Amino acid sequence: MPQPARSIQAAPGAIDPLPQPYLLFLGDIAEPAYAKTAFGLRDWAGERCVGEYACVGAKVSTGLRFMPPEQAFAEGARSMVIGVANPGGRIPPAWLPSLLQGLEAGLDLIGGMHARLEAIDSLRRVADRLGRRLIDVRHPPPGIPVAHGRKRSGMRLLTVGTDCAVGKKYTALALVREWRGLGVDADFRATGQTGILIAGQGIPLDAVVADFAAGAAEMLSPDAGADHWDVIEGQGSLFHPAYAGVSLALLHGSQPDVVVVCHEVGRDIVLGHPGYPLPGIEDTVELTLRLGRRTNPQIRCAGVSLNTAKLDAAQAERLIAAESERLGCPVADPMRGGEAFRRLAQACLR
């Protein structure tokens, strides 16, 4: 007899093993920045992704093979992941036929939205009937304490941004990969649904009650050995009209020794908020250090991570060199790597 659907919640340690490989679902979105979960899984867990699926009229693609759930299941997929992180974390009614199709095809559903899959009656009824799982990862564990503010042992780096979806997660993952190649003891600490899906552990900071958000950051990165580095995935922006509270709680709770400022080249307006111009890199450094000194007086900025995806290789190289000279610090694109990124990684360790 099919077992009732159940919701699996994220915890600060490892989450329950997720059914893999994945079929990435892109809904009907038209803004690529809102598909950061799908792109993150493609780029950092590509071996676990068999293809993508979307509603009619969708404008965004990861470049993976498009396939309906029935084909994906036949080719080995065991779950469909909602690869969208839209404002408010909602699941529109227009997505439900596709999600139900995934369940009927034999796939479990994995959601990283604020909206719980199990709270949607039609999904829950079909999942119960078929014995499929509805797996939510964007929900914090119980028992998160209020932050104590005590300085913890070990070393910490936090990626901060001029806006949402500018490369904070990618920068953190790339730094951990680079450092481990050098023999540095380093761990990636996920604070958002995509990072949790990649790492298999973490706490979704934007789903924590505000009074406990800094405590969640402390819980995520506890005392460690003197030579151990926790590289903490940043969220939002201190300048963001909606999400700055999450960014500040993460900054205070993580108590970073080092920050790297992340920025997307060519973006001038806050994503989803056209009335707000993007802050400058220098303004972001200054505000981050000023506020960060509240819980770590020794905080410093090691450099800047630029998302140069909209430039060709030659343009990116020239801009990276020019910005490094202008700002007086290492500047690099973690996805392009090279000597510039190695300099940035080394500067973080000094």
UniProtKB/TrEMBL annotation:
Q: Which InterPro entries match?
A: DgcN-like, DgcN-like_C, DgcN-like_N, P-loop_NTPase
Ranges for domain D-glutamate N-acetyltransferase-like N-terminal? 70-140
Which residue numbers delimit the D-glutamate N-acetyltransferase-like C-terminal domain? Answer: 146-339
| Protein name per its UniProtKB record | DUF1611 domain-containing protein
Species, as recorded: Luteimonas salinilitoris
Q: Which top-rank group of organisms is this from? A: Bacteria
